[in-house]
Specification:
CATH architecture of the largest domain: 3-Layer(aba) Sandwich
Order of helices and strands: HEHEHEHHHEEEHEHEHHEEHHEHHH
CATH superfamily of the largest domain: Bacterial extracellular solute-binding protein, family 7
Strand order of the largest sheet: 7-6-8-5-9-11
Radius of gyration: 23 Å
Largest sheet: 6 strands, mixed
Distance between the termini: 79 Å
CATH topology of the largest domain: D-Maltodextrin-Binding Protein, domain 2
Number of domains: 2
CATH class of the largest domain: Alpha Beta
């Protein structure tokens, strides 16, 4: 009898041991793409997002992060997500506006007075309206990430708005950015992000525009040591999930769809904190490397904003109303 009981105990223990071992393996593995490198705020926030998802699904879903554009450029990743080839990523408004034209309004130059103003807008009704409106193209918006303010940097000094005239400036593959540069009297050239350093070195372009962390992270400060801090664009980024991936998540547990959104929003708050830290670090590193910073005075800022009036005049009635609401927020 004792021998039989011992055998039963061994079988039961073995059964539950196997069950415990099986739980170590996720039921679903999703792929998340980013065009930045490890250590960059958006990538570190994505890793934090992955840890939240793993913890809160009890290991049932794993999110694997692929940085350094290993899964393709932003445009390539976006196209793959539409067809379910990649599950999640974060995109700039410049890329997203090609799929969601209504985002054009949020890209207007000099739209916000500062970072705090932008987050009052995006954390409120206007931000929710745009975030929840990004549907119907095979991808869904989950949360906002910070991407700082974009300014100009060049190989030669910029004293004011007149110094930009005649220069060839690299911009994202985005028509709004091209038009902004051209209204300032410069020539806009759309070049992939990864080719900017080479283009600067080979004198194919006179400068580019981006946020300060990207400027330092990609060593552009070594080739273009003059930074004109006009902060013409504040373009937040959006964490997206493909509709196909969302269906797979729901198949495991319908409540996980909202859980993913909650985790994304938490990672967004974490990313903002990382961004502020990275901006300070990038500024210090740029100074140490010999970068010359020029901050436009009030008269120059007025001239810059005045040059953008044609863009604002093209707005429809609804867009004008939104811009007014943003200004009053």
């Amino acid at each position: 009898m004792k021998k039989v009981l011992l055998i039963v105990v061994i079988i039961v223990v073995g059964f539950f041991s196997c069950r415990k071992e099986e739980s170590k393996y996720p039921e679903l593995v999703l792929r998340y793409a980013d065009n930045q490198s490890s250590g960059y705020p958006t990538v570190e926030a994505a890793k934090y997002l992955a840890s939240l998802i793993k913890e809160r699904t009890g290991g049932r879903i794993e999110l694997r992060i692929y940085p350094d554009s290993v899964l393709g450029s932003e445009i390539d990743v976006m196209k793959q997500m539409v067809y379910g080839g990649i599950d999640m990523s974060r995109f700039s408004l410049g890329t997203l506006s090609q799929f969601f034209p209504e985002l054009w309004t949020l890209q207007l130059p000099y739209l916000y007075s500062d970072s705090e103003h932008m987050w009052r807008v995006l954390d409120g009704e206007i931000g929710d309206m745009y975030l929840h409106g990004m549907v119907g193209k095979g991808i869904v918006g989950l949360a906002w990430y910070d991407a700082g303010a974009r300014s100009f940097y060049t190989r030669t000094p910029i004293a004011n708005i007149n110094s930009l005239k005649g220069l060839t400036i690299r911009v994202q593959e985005n028509d709004m950015m091209s038009r902004t540069i051209e209204l300032l009297g410069a020539k806009a050239v759309q070049i992939p992000y990864g080719d900017v350093y080479s283009a600067l070195q080979k004198l194919r372009i006179d400068g580019a525009e981006n946020n300060l962390p990207s400027y330092v992270f990609m060593d552009h400060n070594q080739a273009a040591p003059y930074f004109y801090q006009d902060e013409h664009f504040r373009l937040p980024e959006v964490v997206m999930i493909s509709v196909d991936a969302q269906k797979k998540v729901a198949a495991i547990d319908p409540s996980y769809v909202e859980l993913f959104a909650e985790c994304a929003r938490e990672s967004g708050l974490y990313e903002r904190k990382l961004w502020l830290e990275e901006e300070k670090r990038a500024f210090d590193e740029a100074l140490q490397s010999g970068v010359t910073f020029t901050v436009p005075d009030e008269d120059d800022l007025l001239a810059l904003r005045k040059a953008m009036e044609p863009l604002y005049q093209e707005l429809g009635e609804r867009e004008r109303e939104i811009v007014e609401r943003i200004g009053n927020t």
